[in-house]
Amino acid sequence: MEFSVAIQKPSPKHTSTTKSWIAAAACCASLGSGVAIAQPVAPPNPSDAELKAADDAVASGSGDVARLATTVSQKEAEISKLENEMGGLREAVNKALVDLETARTEAKLAREEADAAKADLDSSQKAIDEAQKTLDEVSRSAYRRGTTNGAVAGAAGTANTEDALARQTYLRQNAAKQRAAIEELDRLRAESANKESVLREKRAVAEQREQEATAAEQTAQAALTTNTSLLNARAAERQRLVEERNLAKARLEAAKANSGTLNQQRKEYQDFLKAEEERKAAEKAAAEAAAAKAKAEEEARARAKAEEEARARAEAAAAAERAEAARAAQEAEQAAAAAKRAEADRAAREAAQAAAAAQADAELKQQEAANSQQAQQAAVAAAATAAAALAAAQAADNAQASPVEAPSESVAQPGTGVFGADDYLDLGPSVGAAGTSGVDTAAPAVTSGSRSEKVESVIARAKSQVGLPYAWGGGTANGPSRGIRDGGVADSFGDYNKIGFDCSGLVLYAFAGVGIDLPHYTGYQYQHGTKVSPSEMQRGDLIFYGPNAEHHVAIYLGDGMMIEAPQSGSTVSINPVRWSGMSPYAVRLI
User: Fold this and answer.
1) Out of 1.10.287, 3.10.20, 1.10.3470, 1.10.1670, which CATH number does the structure's domain 1-293+376-405 have?
2) What DSSP assignment string belongs to 316-350?
3) How far apart are CA 546 and CA 580, in angstroms?
4) How crowded is residue 406: how many other Cβ atoms within 10 Å of its Cβ?
5) FRET pair for 403, CA 20 to 30 Å: which of 266, 282, 296, 356?
6) 16 C-beta neighbours (distance < 10 Å), count
7) Which residue in the list 76, 83, 85, 564 is annotated as catalytic?
């Protein structure tokens, strides 16, 4: 019988297979000769240079991955900083929007007041002109009558003279009234002119502020556009580095796999050498056991032959003695019958004793031969027991040598920053139209109750909007509204076509529920309420970001959580408080 074994490739099963061969060899050796055992094929044995090269590749790959991970982390920090600055720029545009609307309103009011003053001035001038015209007519009438009254009165008599005097008195009084009216109208005209001049200057100042607000909005928009390009460039650079890092990780994983394979092959080769030593030792033990068995069998055969020869000699001696006794008996027949019988009995007893001794000697020799056979069988059994024990030990070694897969190592993706690159505003000709197309979700204002009740009302009002889309410029006291165009990334997310909130719009809406009116700009919201240290924040306080709260705002919920409208492409959500970039103070409105 022959055993043939084919080895496909080195594997954890290889050691088990090798040790199984050794156990089989030991058993076969104990059973006898004529058994052919196929010699196992040695597994591949990588060289020390190959192992060193594989380990160096792993070390180099680990260094590359660590370096790229550090670079990616730095880029993400830069992007986070830019996103924070973008939040400030977005809120600066919001501020410019609020200021521009205020300036436009003031300019419009100043123009209206200046126009009204001009109209009053024109009306006063017209009244003065009418009064002057009347006075001129009275003066002309008095002049015409005054040239003829003396002669006519003398000729007409006393009655006519009195009438003339009465008319003259009436004309003088009427002229005096007209002059007084003209003087009053002239005074009013001077006041109107002064007022019109002051309002004209006020209109000029308001229009100048309007122009400055427009310029500020355009400047903020330009800065927003510039930073958008910079942010896009940094994001592209980060993406490139992430791809390089992923490629380096793939190379590292391949290097680790190659190193693991080579080290496993080296281990399997060393296990194979050990198994070969054990196999050869088992074969030697089996051969020695077989030789001992053969020697015992030969000795047993020799003892059996000697015992057989001794038994034959004893039987021959007994037969000779019996023949001699018969012959002696025949000779004794010639003597007296009694003597012959006595001699025959004695001879028979002697023969019986001799036969018994011979039989005992033969039985002793047979017992020795049986003991030799038992010793041989005991040797065979001992060899089989040793082979079985060796096989069991090899099976236990194989179980202990089974490899354990190490857990794979995973690297975290960098998260995104607090703010996206998509929160930008396009004021355009419809700058004041934000919030006019929103969805009215207003709830009745809670203006009474304890502070705790008001805080919970504010938070409940904010939480009711969780999941609603971020829309830059969106959010009013009544609820979410349509976002505003920015001509940039926010437009790419379609903020102008979404109904939702930006950060300050969500805060404005939440606190409107308790009767607190806030402007739609984080910088102005920061000026309301009481400033407190961030370490002393309470539920319902406002958290601001940026040196002057111009970047972002959220509502603190307690336990390290806050609710916010983070950035374009996101939704109103509850997130852990970010301490990086936080303004010096939090604000408590209730």
Assistant:
1) 1.10.287
2) HHHHHHHHHHHHHHHHHTTS-HHHHHHHHHHHHHH
3) 10
4) 8
5) 282
6) 19
7) 564
CATH 1.10.287 residue ranges for the chain: 1-293+376-405
> Angle at the Cα of 374 (from 368 to 379), degrees rounded to 5?
130
Between the alpha carbon of residue 552 and those of residues 359, 423, 454, 521, the distances in Å are 121, 11, 23, 9
Q: Strand order in 573-576's β-sheet?
A: 530-532, 586-588, 542-545, 552-558, 561-564, 573-576
**What's the CATH superfamily of 428-588?**
endopeptidase domain like (from Nostoc punctiforme) (3.90.1720.10)
User: What does the alpha-carbon distance between residue 271 and residue 274 come to, in Å, rounded to a whole number?
Assistant: 5
* Residue with tokens 């606190």, as numbered in its chain: 511
Residue type, position 379, single letter: A
Backbone angles phi, psi at 96, to 5 degrees: -60, -35
> For every one of its 590 residues, what pLDDT tens digit does the chain have, with 9 covering 90 and above?
444 434 444 454 445 554 554 455 444 444 444 445 566 788 999 999 999 999 999 999 899 899 989 998 998 898 888 888 888 888 888 898 899 899 999 989 988 988 988 888 888 888 888 888 887 887 787 667 655 555 555 555 566 778 778 877 887 888 888 889 888 888 988 988 998 899 899 999 999 999 999 999 899 889 889 888 888 998 898 899 899 999 999 999 999 999 999 999 999 999 999 999 999 999 999 999 999 999 999 999 998 999 899 889 888 988 888 888 888 878 878 777 777 777 767 776 776 677 667 667 766 776 766 665 665 565 445 445 544 544 454 444 444 433 333 333 333 333 333 343 333 333 333 333 333 344 444 445 556 789 999 999 999 999 999 999 999 999 999 999 999 988 887 788 999 999 999 999 999 999 999 999 999 999 999 999 999 999 999 999 999 999 999 999 999 999 999 999 999 999 999 999 999 999 999 999 99
Q: Which of 209, 5, 250, 196 is nearest to 108 (CA)?
A: 209
> Could you please report the per-residue DSSP string of 215-283?
HHHHHHHHHHHHHHHHHHHHHHHHHHHHHHHHHHHHHHHHHHHHHHHHHHHHHHHHHHHHHHHHHHHHH
**Angle 300-305-310 (CA atoms, 0-180°, nearest 5)?**
125
Q: How many C-beta atoms lie closer than 10 Å to residue 107's C-beta?
A: 21
Structure tokens that stand for 216 in this block: 């500020």
Structure tokens at 375: 């010793």
Contact between 229 and 421 (Cβ < 8 Å) = no
To the query of whether residue 27 is one of the catalytic residues in this protein, the response is no
Q: Are 578 and 476 in contact, with CB atoms under 8 Å apart?
A: no
Strand partners, 476: 479
Could you say which DSSP state residue 534 is in? G
**Catalytic one among 91, 196, 217, 503?**
503
Where does the chain hold its CATH 3.90.1720.10 domain(s)? 428-588
Q: How far apart are CA 362 and CA 209, in angstroms?
A: 142
Residues facing residue 543 across a β-bridge: 554
